[in-house]
Write a structure and sequence with these properties.
This protein is mainly α. It has one domain. It is about 85% helix and about 0% strand. The chain has 10 helices and no strands. Helix 1 packs across helix 4, helix 4 packs across helix 7 and helix 7 packs across helix 9. It is globular, with a radius of gyration of 20 Å.
């Protein structure tokens, strides 16, 4: 009963307007929310590409509906995941597993990057809808696609929610950052795709940040907590280094062409 009461208490905080006011007036909270939004935006660029590939076999008017239904499901899932996660993240072994999984995501990204595969081709091969698949046969082309998009949204959400818990365990910070993050994947993903096209090093920076967040979560298990200033300082250095590396790479390319 203690577990159930703890989860209910967490959900009740979603409607605590006093806490909501405190978060909105706390610059540190906005710093964390901004971090989550930027991180989500960078990571969601590839996710948006995958989802676009998944619905491209539908008529144009049905594509928007399929993505919209997937968006609603993603919001619901994140609301549930954050509520339960606030309780689970207090358990040390959950933090260890979460940190290990985030580290795995980052390491896997850099290992896959060495293969230099085309992201669009990879997305189509891995996530394209199988038109003779079980979901489409059971629920029809449209609803089978909606369910497939929903499942993919949930998979993306697991990664994002874990990263959010590595950044902060404040309920409202997680809720606002998580919900805006879903919106980023749908509404602003195109902007981030263009940004990554111009500064491709940003994608690697996102996974470096995931690795830093993983270390932050793991250190928390042993009672070692990184201060807000140090954490934000690391983020600023990471982004500054990204643009320095981008400038140096562009300069090398110009010299080769010259």
């Amino acid at each position: 009963m203690g577990i159930l009461e703890s989860i209910i208490h967490t959900y009740s905080q979603f409607f605590n307007w006093e806490m909501w006011g405190e978060v909105l007036t706390d610059p540190v909270s906005w710093g964390y929310i901004g971090t989550l939004i930027i991180l989500e935006g960078l990571l969601s660029a590839d996710n948006a590409l995958v989802l676009a590939v998944m619905v491209k076999h539908l008529p144009p008017e049905q594509r928007k509906k399929a993505l919209f239904y997937g968006l609603l499901g993603a919001y619901i899932f994140r609301f549930i995941a954050i509520g339960i996660g606030v309780f689970l993240i207090k358990l040390w072994w959950v933090k260890v597993l979460g940190a290990a999984y985030l580290a795995y995501l980052a390491i896997k990204y850099f290992m896959d990057k060495r293969k230099n595969s085309n992201p669009e081709e990879h997305a189509e091969e891995e996530h394209g809808i199988n038109k003779s698949g079980l979901l489409l046969r059971l629920f029809g082309t449209f609803w089978g696609t909606v369910i497939s998009v929903e499942l993919m949204d949930i998979a993306f959400s697991v990664d994002s929610v874990l990263a959010a818990f590595g950044v902060s365990n404040q309920v409202w910070v997680l809720l606002v950052g998580g919900m805006l993050g879903v919106l980023m994947m749908r509404g602003v993903a195109g902007v981030f795709l263009k940004l990554i096209d111009r500064v491709p090093e940003l994608e690697s920076t996102a996974y470096i940040l995931i690795l830093i967040i993983s270390a932050k979560m793991f250190l928390g298990v042993f009672g070692v907590h990184i201060s807000h200033y140090v954490f934000f300082g690391i983020l600023l250095i990471a982004f500054a280094a990204t643009f320095v590396v981008h400038y140096m790479n562009k300069k090398k390319e110009a010299q080769k062409e010259g």
